[in-house]
Design brief:
Elements lengths: L2 H8 L5 H25 L7 H42 L4 H12 L8 H17 L6 H19 L7 H19 L3 H43 L6
């Protein structure tokens, strides 16, 4: 998977499963390779600066993983509320329709909150600022991993919302419109399908982010072990 190709895809429209999750998985692979290298290589004096730089920047990557996970949880909760609205619409009494309308109006249509954007921006700036000269295998690997991490963070800064998210929001809007005019059969089915696609996308991205978090912890542990320092838990 080439990260650059994922950037080209976002010029059209990104998706959870088509671009974001694969990019995060690529970052996980990069950290696993760095972990193996650090365990297998005896650090030289010239390796100290790039490894320290990596330990500093990787804290921000862990922060980004946490921020993205929090946002995924929020979106999953809002999706569940929409599914509850669909269940109410399956028995369309006036009370159920009113409750369903209220639930669907709670959809905020916010793909990323400020925390994700702020942390992603800080990560990109830190990696650019702290990149060490690529002298030696360890230094080159650290620079490469930092570059991949920054590119992945950039995917959460650029472009619009993922296709699954926008499709679900559009389906919510159409369903609300039809409820207001007294009909919603076809729109209810469309919303159910969009909710399924959104759920699959969120699950895919969530699993990738969790894997990246674990990979970063392991690569940090390998770096800390090189100095005989306490490992991350």
């Amino acid at each position: 998977m080439h990260i650059r190709s994922l950037y080209e895809e976002t010029e059209a429209q990104k998706s959870f499963q088509g671009s974001l999750a694969p990019a995060v998985e690529a970052a996980s692979s990069a950290h696993r390779l760095l972990e193996n290298l650090l365990y297998e290589t005896h650090l030289r004096e010239a390796d100290v600066e790039p490894v320290v730089s990596f330990l500093s920047a990787s804290v921000k990557l862990l922060d980004l993983c946490n921020a993205i996970s929090d946002q995924i949880n929020k979106l999953c909760h809002e999706r569940l509320l929409a599914l509850l609205a669909l269940q109410l619409l399956s028995s369309p009494s006036s009370e159920n329709i009113s409750r369903a309308r209220e639930l669907l109006r709670g959809w905020e249509s916010v793909w990323l909150d400020g925390d994700v954007g702020e942390v992603a921006g800080e990560l990109v700036k830190r990696v650019v600022r702290e990149r060490a000269p690529a002298e030696g295998a360890v230094a080159r690997a650290v620079c490469a991993v930092g570059g991949v991490s920054a590119l992945v963070a950039g995917l959460f800064l650029r472009g619009g919302a993922p296709a699954e998210f926008e499709g679900f929001g559009a389906a919510v809007g159409r369903c609300l419109l039809r409820i207001s005019t007294g009909g919603f059969g076809e729109e209810r089915e469309e919303l159910a399908a969009a909710a399924e696609r959104l759920g699959e996308g969120l699950d895919c991205l969530g699993a990738a982010v969790e894997s990246l978090f674990r990979s970063v912890l392991r690569s940090r542990n390998a770096a800390l072990r090189s100095y005989g320092l306490p490992r991350s838990e």
